[in-house]
Write a structure and sequence with these properties.
This protein has 149 residues and is an alpha/beta fold. The chain has one domain: NAD(P)-binding Rossmann-like Domain (Rossmann fold), CATH 3.40.50. The chain has 6 helices and 6 strands. The protein has a 6-stranded parallel sheet with strand order 3-2-1-4-5-6. Helix 4 links the parallel strand 4 and strand 5. The longest helix is centred in the middle third of the chain and has 19 residues.
Length: 149
């Protein structure tokens, strides 16, 4: 399957350290980012992480259009994924959880969008039902935003 759809809107599923790092990186590269996480205080924690990382991202160099104002948040995953060109999944590393999460993401994401995962359970999680391109990026949980760039 070839992929030619331009990527403008990125959805982040799970906003712990890894998801927040991805969100900050994508914002610094000028993308619109919609994040989703059901955890209590997830939005506040994400915004604090992005704010704290922004100085380092700025010193490295921001892309045209980079702005923290391009970050939106919703606890409704279906809403977050409904218009995403690219989805970055960062949920808990539990095979049973990942299988269910990927099925829900697959159903909510446009069929021509990419889903990437920070998961180590790629073979368990990547069971898309619509010929979707799924890629595990294998990000270590100890990597912080500074190390991503």
């Amino acid at each position: 399957m070839s992929f030619k759809k331009p990527i403008h809107r990125i959805a982040i599923v799970g906003t712990g350290v890894i998801g927040a790092s991805w969100a900050a990186q994508y914002l610094a590269r000028g993308f619109d980012v919609v994040a989703t996480d059901p955890a209590p205080n997830a939005e506040a924690n994400l915004r604090k992480y992005v704010d704290d990382a922004w100085k380092d991202l700025t010193s490295i160099g921001l892309s045209t259009g980079a702005s923290r104002d391009r970050l939106t948040f919703t606890t409704n995953m279906k809403e977050a994924l409904s218009k995403a060109d690219f989805v970055q999944e960062n949920g808990p590393e539990r095979p049973d959880f990942k299988i269910k999460l990927f099925a829900e993401m697959d159903a909510a994401t446009p069929v021509d969008s990419l889903i990437a995962s920070s998961s180590f359970f790629e073979k368990l999680a990547a069971r898309p039902s619509r010929n979707r391109v799924v890629k595990a990026v294998g990000l270590s949980a100890k990597i912080r935003c500074k190390s991503l760039i």
